[in-house]
Amino acid sequence: MPGKLKAKIVAGRHLPVMDRASDLTDAFVEVKFGNTTFKTDVCPKSLNPQWNSEWFKFEVDDEDLQDEPLQITVLDHDTYSANDAIGKVYIDIDPLLYSEAASVISGWFPIYDTIHGIRGEINVIVKVELFNDLNRFRQSSCGVKFFCTTCIPQCYRATLVHGFVEELVVNEDPEYQWIDRIRTPRASNEARQRLISLMSGELQRKIGLKVLEMGGNAVVGYLQCFDLEGESGLVVRAIGTACTLDKLSSGSAPNTNTHMHPNTAPASNACNSPSKDGKESPLAHGCRSTHNSPVHSVCSSQRLSQNFSVSVPTLIFTGMGSGGSAGKEAGPLRTLLRQQTQTALEQREFPFFTLTSFPPGFLLHVGGVVSARSVKLLDRIHNPDEPETRDAWWEEIRQEIKSHARALGCHAVVGYSESTSICEEVCILSASGTAAILNPRYMREGCLDIGCTDHRFEDPSPPSCGFCHIPYDELNMPFPAQLTYCYHCRRQKVPDVLFTTIDLPSEAAVAGKGCLIQARLCRLKKKAQGETNATAISNLLPFMEYELHTQLMNKLKLRSMNALFGLHIQISVGENMLLGLASATGVYLTALPAPGGIQIAGKTPGDLSNEHISSIQKRINDTIAVNKELYQINPPELAEEGVGSPIPEPRHRSRLFRSHSESSDELSELDLSHGKKDAFVLEIDDTDAVEDIHSLLIDAPPPTGFYSCNTENMPGISNWTSGVQMFTSVRVLRLSNANLTNQGLNKIFTDLCENLLKSFYFKLRSMIPCCLCHLNFTVAVPEEELIQVTVTAVAMTYDKEQTQEKTAEKPVNKGSLEAEEQLQFPLELCADSSSSNIQTASKISGVAESTNISPRAASVDYGSFADRCSTWLELLRLKAHTIRRGSVKTISSLERCSPLQEGRSRSLRSSRSFGGSSVTVVKMTPLSFLPGIRIIKYLGIINMFFIRETTSLREEGGVSGFLHSFIAEVFAMVRAHVAALGGNAVVSYSMKECVFMENPNKNQAQCLINVSGDAVICISETDQESSASTANTGQTGGGGTDGAT
Amino acid sequence: MSVELDVFVGNTTIMDEEVYQLWLDGYTVNDAVKVRMEGGVMDECEASKDVLLSDTMDQYRTFQMCERLLHSPAKLANQLLFQIPPHRQIMLIERYYAFDDTFVREVLGKKLSKGTKKDLDDISAKTGVTLKSCRRQFDNFKRVFKVVEELKGPLVENIRQHFLLSDKLARDYAAIVFFANNRFETGKRKLQYLSFQDFAFCAGQLISNWTVGAVGEYNMVEDMDVDLDKEFLQELKELKILITDKDLLDQHKSLVCTALRGKTKVFPEMETSFKNLSRGLINIAAKLTNTKDVRDFFIDLVEKFIEPCRSDRWTAADMKLYLTHYTNSAHILDTFKHQVVWDRYMGVVKSCIFKMYHD
Q1: Are A953 and A959 in contact (CB under 8 A)?
Q2: Chain B CB contacts of A909 below 8 Å
Q3: 8 Å CB contact of A884 and B89
Q4: What's the sign of the alpha-carbon dihedral A976, A977, A981, A986?
């Protein structure tokens, strides 16, 4: 079904000087969509051209509308030679394709060139007319909403969660085509940018189709990644969670779901067909035997089989296909399975969810982290239309994950994510998630609206601890773990520690505050090629995982905490080393037993270094005590003593099982045989072990006034104030010393991460008291002897006074309190897990109202609005000035603004004591929310890919100067696109790729950056009413201004 | 092992005012780190030297990237690269255009040319202001000069609007532009005791009273605040009658002396030097049609008036008293017809001398 795309080029400003002789530019613009190109007139001799072009109209299929970006190229006209390109703007028009989002894209876009960066700005207006609205859902996936946010977006309500959607498309990388030998790097990079833009459009459309097949209308937790496989090609892949979302607004009818039968699935399934065969194979016979990967030779060694068991419920012994579902949970499970066969399409056999936080009541139990890794040798992708190899690889991994989850007695995996690490022709594929049991009602249609109160009581566990209860069978445990009766309800069993990849459920009862816990590890490996290399890597992987887990466990104990949330383990491969970085947020769950301390033991009881050992032990005990204080961990003693032991016998038993349930003071007295449980006792048998223990103690706590976490919510802090500072930091370390040991490397790597954190604390000290949230570390080994760490996070201020009050009463009351709240308002699914569970009707209607009043509230250019309201005197003065300016001969290049532009900016300054700015402030955050601010509208997904290159590295301030300006430019372009959509914030922002390459000898460098997020309109919660109306008036004003320029 | 690359970029550009000042003052990164360490910032957040170095480098880079925008401050408000809150923008601009009084004192009245720029290293050595900072300040003067040279309308307002400066700073720049344009001599040894603020005050007086723009009727003339009113300078010649007409001179003297008698300790000195002083002031006025003599205006004031008074140990109050009566008495002279010109002249001279009469 066709649609009409219309674009109008209004003006340019701050263009670069392209003609040295005249110090001016004769600019014109090419507007291209698909194979159609339009041109504007040349605007001679101006750095601030006014084209005011006609509307360029493209009549195109909506499939193209989804796939293609609108390409705008600004050129300098040259009579005698070829026209010089000034730069380009790619505009993703997807946000215009669904009715609820943006209706127009209009604003100033930075003109970007891969060599020169941003070179001025261009004002563009884009509109889309889709013909035949009724039909449009059937032909393409226009209309499916995408969200990067990994929870149900604010101002929506999930009526149905359908499940996992995935897709990948492959292509040759233009950088590696033969033509690359004759064309300039710039042309090559532009081709890459264009291609990736096209591929992500295509991918999104295909995912959209799958969502429609499932009967959904949105993808939440959309995660798109690029694999730059070098010679073997370019893979763009994405996963997400299909949902049916309803907009929370009074009077809006629930979305009608188009029910499509599996049989009518469109042709795009073709690329998925290979997976169909493997799907039916039961998981019972273990993963190892079933695969016939195309890389036959390494097939056996490439698979990571986690053939070791730790007392952590995270690593699952693959061969241990234990009975699967626990008897207790059989009921809901069976319902769910039946459910799945009903709703999910045939090939979607993965009950995976990319969401990390859920509506209350959705998550019943959590089993633990499941992860799978696989080492593959890359081979050229011969036929881009049949990406079956890559599909099969992921299929394999997902099957493994699924079987792990089964082993934990879980039927679903939540907080699921996938990643790769590529070095030369070796690729590590990783997937991880949290095995869980979900409330099946969210997967059944219609059950949410009617009678969900009944469902509520199906599950007897209170929400504050229910998710901690083990989903697996106690008698048939998948790994050795110590179980106790839940410290909260005393009715069901809980493990001693809990690792998860999801966010802390908002209803969970915690004591004290959380903190960021990282395990860092380096492993040297010999340089090798092909299969030998792949084998060597896959042999190293299990040990790395084991060590990372041990480190995590020890650090968790050291902080006196018993659960990890948001666990993310990244293993990055380089030519001569592997890097492992595990990040998570530690927290003390009051439902779980108190963690034991750490016991230091010599090799033999009467070791010679006894004194040494006891001194270390003392340091450890001191650290634990300090940390308890620091994170305010005062678990309620009542739970243990007060309730007159409802089930005495099991409690007794639990005591036997737990190694140390007493406070840390008593620890030193415990005898070894009693405390000898894997993670608790550290044996010092050689110098390495001593080093390890030292490194444990190295991690400095954040300075006073700072907290840190890598999750959406900071456990123990919820009273955010308005201060928000999102940042990205990149550090690259060169290892000059060639013969380093593993220990030495570990130290260097640990210091690198710790120093980064210290830098953040220092830089953000003006925000104290403040919390660094969503600290997302990415490691890479871009070259031999280089370690790159990229961090994106947000610092948020909070009110110190309130926190203390809250935490004081929290541990005691929270559980029961929240349960009550939920019973009172069981009908409302709270979209924002961070906010309180009470969502009153008035609140909702309030949102609805403001939504109706100002659909584009944030597009308002407040500056110019205020400016327009300034007195007529000011305007007169401005006019007089403009006339004066007209006659002035200009010399300095800085002053070559056109009269009109100049006039406009001038008026801004003078009218608002030079504070005014015509640029919309756009907030950015990696979180799904902004403190004190309500999101009233999602405008669409931002997914941008940029390449920047330089051949004058020294002149641009070296590598740091180069990357600094590039990152700043990327931020600027994201902000500009959001502002053009009418938005004023980006939530769930992430920098998914930052590939930096340099060649200092040639004075060259290149960097690729991929960022994504959700563009939104938000308004301050406090003055919602007033700002909504102001915004509305402002909108008209802003529109007028736009028209005038 | 070395840090190859290290950057930190915030969505809202992070700028530390202290580091900004160090950057403006021309400190190298290492020197700035030293200063910051001594300032005790390390204790604030358990920072180490490395942290400080990394932070300082980041900030220096940011400032360098911003510098281009600061050259035309209007751009700062509608550029997209850096998200800087408005109050920060104001701070950035104000500090960038701020200058050292000791430095400006050295170049005041000089031609803002390449030649002067070459002497900056000497000035740097003399004033203790780093060469980098000297260059920035000098370039700022030059930039402002160039821009307002082309503009019509009131000088201070033009500077304020174009460079988004505070009123105070805009006035100072107006003084610098005014001095540079008229090339007033300020460097002579006898003028060394005067500060920039003394001159800035005088410039303000001259701009608002003696320029074309001061009259008010030509509101939109080029250079109206920069060039002195030629007609007025011509008219000043008429004042010579006060010293050439002997009757008038005596009459004037007796009027002044009558008014002053008994009111000051230095009356006898005043009486004896009246004729000399009056001749001095009026000769200055009469010569102002010559560009050369305009340049020497301040040195003439000092030599012909301030020094003689100082050697007679007049206090500032004596000076005020004397000049007030000197000015007012002229109004009573029947035959003296040039009251308007007289007031316009003496008003400025009086307030300039008041300002300049100190140690």
Answers
A1: yes
A2: 74, 77, 161, 164
A3: no
A4: negative
* Helix or strand (DSSP H, E) at A1031: helix A1024-1044
Give CA–CA dist A986/A1018, Å, rounded: 10
The rounded distance, in Å, linking the Cα atoms of A945 and A236 is: 12
Is A964 close to B62, i.e. CB distance below 8 A?
A: yes
Residues within 8 A of B (CB atoms), A 203-232 only: none
Asked if B7's CB is within 8 angstroms of A960's CB, the reply is: yes
pLDDT per residue as tens digits for the range B2-57: 888 999 999 999 899 999 999 999 999 999 999 999 888 777 777 788 899 999 99
Question: Which of A108, A916, A975 minimises the CB distance to B77?
Answer: A916
Largest CA distance in chain A: 96
Cβ distance B11 to A726 less than 8 Å, yes or no, reads: yes
Domain boundaries, chain B: 17-85, 101-210, 230-356
SS3 A464: coil
pLDDT in tens, A67-108: 889 999 999 988 777 888 899 999 988 888 876 667 789 999
Would you call A914 helix, strand, or coil by DSSP? coil
Phi-psi region of A428 (alpha: psi -120 to 50; beta: other; left: phi over 0): beta
Residues from chain B that touch A755, judged by Cβ atoms under 8 A, are 48, 50-51
> Are the beta carbons of B86 and A915 separated by less than 8 Å?
yes
Residue B53 distance to chain A (closest CA, Å):
10
Give strand pairing partners of A413: A352, A435
**Residue among A169, A975, A45, A631 nearest B82 (CA):** A975
CB atoms B5 and A915 under 8 Å: no
Determine if residue B128 is left, alpha or beta; phi over 0 gives left, psi from -120 to 50 gives alpha, anything else beta.
Answer: left
Q: Is A763 exposed, middle or buried (0-12, 13-18, 19+ CB in 10 A)?
A: buried
- Cβ neighbours around A692 below 10 Å, total: 18
Q: Enumerate the residues of chain B whose CB falls inside 8 A of the CB of residue A864.
A: none
Candidates B169, B166, B181, B184; CA nearest to B137 is B169
The span from the CA of B280 to the CA of B303, in Å, is: 9
3-state secondary structure of A184: coil
Contacts of B44 (CB under 8 A, 6+ apart): A762, A765
Residues of chain A with Cβ-Cβ distance to B6 below 8 Å are 730-732, 960
- Cβ of B78 within 8 Å of Cβ of A919? The answer is yes
Tens of pLDDT along A663-673?
333 333 333 33
Whether residue B150 and residue A924 make contact (CB cut-off 8 A), yes or no, is no
d(CA A397, CA A419): 11
Determine contact, residues A488/A640, Cβ cutoff 8 Å: no
- Within the 921-980 window of chain A, which residues sit less than 8 Å (CB to CB) from chain B? 921-924, 957, 959-961, 963-965, 967-969, 971-972, 975-976
Q: How does DSSP assign A695-730, residue by residue? A: HHHH-PPPPTTEEE-SSSS-TT---EEEEEEEEEEE
Q: Could you tell me how many CB contacts below 8 A there are between chain A and chain B?
A: 186
First to last CA, chain B: 60
Q: What is the pLDDT of residue A836?
A: 37
Apex CA A912: angle with CA A906 and CA A917, to 5°? 65
pTM of the predicted model, to two decimals? 0.80
Rounded to the nearest 5°, which phi and psi values hold at A793? -160, 175
Tokens describing residue A213: 């097949």
Q: Is A894 in contact with B90 (Cβ distance < 8 A)?
A: no
Ranges of residues in chain A whose predicted pLDDT is under 50: 135-137, 250-348, 445-459, 638-679, 803-916, 1025-1045
Bridge partners (DSSP) of residue A587 are: A563
Contact A919 B80 (CB under 8 A): yes
